[in-house]
Amino acid sequence: MRVSYEWLKTMVDVPDDPKDLVAEFVRTGTEVESVERVGADLANVVTARVVSKERHPDSDHMWLCKVDVGERNLGADGVPEPLQIVCGAQNFEAGDHIVTALVGAVLPGGVKIKKSKLRGVESFGMNCSERELGMGNDHDGIIILPKDAPVGMDYTDYLGSSDTVIDCEITPNRPDCLSMVGMATEVAAVLDEDAHVELPRIAHEDPSVRTADLVDVTIDDASLCQRYTARVVRGVKIGPSPEWLARRVIAAGSRPINNVVDVTNYVMYLTGQPLHAFDLRKLSERDGRRHVVVRAAHEGEHVTTLDGKDRTLTPDMVVITDDGGAPVALAGVMGGLDSEIDEGTVDVLLESAVFEPGHISRTSRNLDLMSEASIRYERQVDAAGCATVSDVAAALFEQCCGATVCEGMVDEYPVPAVPARVSLRPDRVRALSGAPIETSFMVGRLRRLGCEVAEGADEHAALEVVAPTSRPDLTRECDLVEEVLRLWGEGDVEPTLPAARNHAGGLTVEQQRLRLVGRTLRAAGLSETMTYNFADPRDLERLGVPDEGRGVPVKIMHPLVADQGEMRRDLLPGLLRSVAYNLDHGVGNVHLYEVGRLFFGHEHRSQPDEPTYVAGVMCGAWDDDQWNRKFGRLDFFDAKGVVETLLEALRLTKVRFRVADAKAYPWLQPGQAAEVLANGALLGWVGNVHPMSLKAFDIDEPVVAFELSVDALLRKARRELPYQDVPTLPGVSVDLALVVDESMTAEQVMQRIRSAGGKLLSSVRLFDVYRDPARVGEGKKSMAFSLEYRAADHTLTSEEVEKAHDKLVQKVMKSTGGEVRG
């Protein structure tokens, strides 16, 4: 929902700085997507005066103009003089005041104004029409300002249209906030201010023509349509909207089209009630009246919507029909092309109705047709306000379109809206919230929200609350508790331990270890992130996970977003999206980890498995290069080091890394991936993500990643390691260089060395790998190890070391097929 700050100011007192209101929105549970300045896209667009107008020397329809733009006048030689502009419009003369975009201006739609040549003549700007400035559809000529308009003023300042728009993310349970009136009510409750909303009123209804004599309405099934009102306005004059109306429609996120369409859009943004205007003459007449029938669509029935597309309908869709026959609109989603308003429209049938949210939601998704109307109907529109909203629209038709309003309206209301009545116990509010909220605060803020509140005899007596029909989320006492608490401030609630007998509190061992996982990864340089539990069903396919390794998906019956249709089965896709987002926004060094649940279904069980995993991704370098230090690109060994640090913190023993089979891990690069094991149990994997998998997530940089089972980590973790005395006796170091096959890994050789070393071998370390076909042999490599021998109870003699070492060498050569390099 785009909230115009200037518009909001007319309804409720707000802080001078929009940032203060944004902070209050966030505090009370309304997320803010962005704050933008309307008019910022019209920088370098100024008021101007035409000094002269002459024929273009090489065109019969273009004009060569001199345009005065005040202090910004600049001639070709740098001396201030009126700008030379080539213009194709025909509706202006010398002396007219106009609007000019200077060189460097970027107009709505991304059009950048540059110095150019038109038919061989230089032009230093552009004279603008309404459409070019995104302020209307008029493109027949440039904007002509009053004769007293100043010259050289920013056009947004001249209009007074500079505005701040706060784009709020409205949760599905708050349909009331999808309107300016609803947002004004919310702000009034948040700031404890009075809301003063003044709606337009009809000046005069024509008593000689009754709407009921021109139109009747039939609702076939009340479960499809809760209420349908119809009004008729006559003598509509189609044209551009007034300036104030166009500005507000633009601020709300739409483009002005004409006064009729703009009025319906404006009223929808104002009240949250979608409207639709039919051209009355395009509906068939029978018995002197038009007959509107609301019914379910027939299987295979067709309608061409306003976007020009032919739609095939199904019986779970609702249509507005002409006398029960051909559909003229797809109810709650989009109007039909056959009954649209055009330049010849004179009489308008105005619809204000409420349709069943589930049908509208399914229709919108099945037809892949999302509209501002469907968004509001899906979340539930207030049926009690239909008639009032219809009157508001009729009043604006009267003001902005020169229309005559016919007397009365047709109102079919088979299912009246009943406000919820809830008993609210102040002591219960304080007990549930853990906050000392005064009863007077509860009463005052609930009334600000539009509730009727009957107070009890004292501070502790129950309050009888009647919730407004515009708030379908307020039906239980706990709903009111939540409203009171969020307005009071959840952040101000002092944390306390729950009351319990014989319970000292504290974290369980698993909780302590889980927190240790996070602390260790953060200490290693990774930042924690949280991605959605919902996932795109195509994620694992993009990643390259084979079908047999994906598990059974847990599908969402009614996903709010089309590409989040199931619960996630892997953490990596969400993390890769975070990497892509950071790279797209100029952050080249990305180090993220997430601890979260995965969801795997079963064909014959209702409850899914929900194992917990920890995963991390690393891209770029550890830090930006400094004058005295350069950072290399992160690779497999950096990720392996992070994993080793984590396993060491959890005190896992007998940890080893095994080369990952490329067929089992197709999303990892072959030869640059390993399985992680501890005490023989598989914990997870670490490796470089395959370039094809990265490309599927729009990533062009190398990424290393890891994923480990938290359940396996916690099972293998130890509280403490076996105590070992600090060695007091000296050790003896011996180097060993073995020539082995290229396929032999360092870990395999080190395992055989440890196995052959017995009790005297205290440590082994690889310190060199050497390849040379001439000296070592084709397909061979030399691996040099540093071995340390030590006895716990005596100092080793050279004879003991030689004997133990010779025995080790013989066993290792036999088990590896290698030779000692001379």
From TrEMBL:
Its cofactor is Mg(2+). Mg(2+) binds at residues 473, 479, 482-483. The keyword Lyase does not apply. Its main location: cytoplasm. GO terms for molecular function: phenylalanine-tRNA ligase activity. Binds 2 magnesium ions per tetramer. It is found in: Cytoplasm. Keywords: Aminoacyl-tRNA synthetase, ATP-binding, Cytoplasm, Ligase, Magnesium, Metal-binding, Nucleotide-binding, Protein biosynthesis, RNA-binding, tRNA-binding. Its EC number is 6.1.1.20. Residues 417-495 form the B5 domain. The keyword 4Fe-4S does not apply. Residues 727-821 form the FDX-ACB domain. It holds the Pfam family tRNA_synthFbeta. Residues 39-156 form the TRNA-binding domain. InterPro entries: aa-tRNA-synth_II/BPL/LPL (IPR045864), B3/B4_tRNA-bd (IPR005146), DNA-bd_dom_put_sf (IPR009061), Fdx_antiC-bd (IPR005121), Fdx_antiC-bd_sf (IPR036690), NA-bd_OB-fold (IPR012340), Phe-tRNA-ligase_IIc_bsu (IPR045060), Phe-tRNA-ligase_IIc_bsu_bact (IPR004532). It catalyses: tRNA(Phe) + L-phenylalanine + ATP = L-phenylalanyl-tRNA(Phe) + AMP + diphosphate + H(+). SMART domains: B3_4, B5, FDX-ACB. Belongs to the phenylalanyl-tRNA synthetase beta subunit family. Type 1 subfamily. PANTHER family: PHENYLALANINE--TRNA LIGASE BETA SUBUNIT, PHENYLALANYL-TRNA SYNTHETASE BETA CHAIN AND LEUCINE-RICH REPEAT-CONTAINING PROTEIN 47. Tetramer of two alpha and two beta subunits. This is Phenylalanine--tRNA ligase beta subunit. It comes from Olsenella absiana.
